[in-house]
Amino acid sequence: MNLQETVLMQLRDLILRGKFEPGQRLAEQQLAERLGASRTPVRAALVTLEQEGLVEANDTGKYLVRQYTPREVADAIAVRGHLEGMAARLVAEHGVSRQLQLDLQSCLDAGDRALAADPLTYESYAAYAAMNDRFHALILEASGNRALQRAIALNDKLPFAPASAMLPMQGSLAMDRDWMLYAHRQHHMLFAALKAGEGARAQALAVEHTEVAQMNLRQALERRAETERVMPAIRLVVGG
Q: Is residue 130 pLDDT above 80, yes or no?
C-alpha cells in the first residue's frame, strides 16, 4: 500500500482528534519522526490536506492547521451526500456500461479484501480509502454532468468533505470495522441499484451513505470533548 496514503490517513485522524491546535505549524521533519516515515510522503500528504481545506500555507510556504467548525464539516458532508445522490440517480437512469460494472465490481472486491483484515491497521484503512475514493469517482464521472462534477470538486475543498476524509477511526478497532463493513454494504446495495436502473433508490442510498461520515464527526467531537475534560484534571494532579 502507498505510504503516502497511510501518512495522509494518520494526519487526517490527528487533526480530527484535535491533536494540533488551529494555527499550529506542521513541520515536515517533526511529523515524519512522529509517524515513522520519510519527509517525502509527509510533504505529499500536506499538499493533499491543503487541497481538502484542513491546512493552509502561510506567506513563507509553511503549513498551518486551519480553523474549522463542526457545523462547517457537517454542512459540507450533507451537501456532498445530495450531490452524489444526484450523480447516482443520473447513472442509474442512463444505464451502467459493461466497463463501469467491471470497474465498480473491482472496487467492491478491493473493499472486501481490505475489510477482511482483523484487526484493522492504518494500511487497511488506506487500502479501503483508495478503493472508496475510486468508487465514488467512477460514479461521479459516469454521471456525465460537468456542473455537478465541478460542484463536488468545490465542496471537496472544505474540511473533511471528500468521500474518504471521515472514515471511522475514532472508536475501538472493532467498532471501526463494524461501521466500515456497514458502509461497504451500502456500496454493494448502491451498485445493485445502479445496475437495476433504480434511480430513486440509488439516490436515496447515496444520501444515506454519508451518515457514516456524520456519525464519525459526532463521535470525534465527543471524544475530543472528553479528552479536554480529562487532561486539565491530569495536569492538576501531576502538578500537585
A: yes
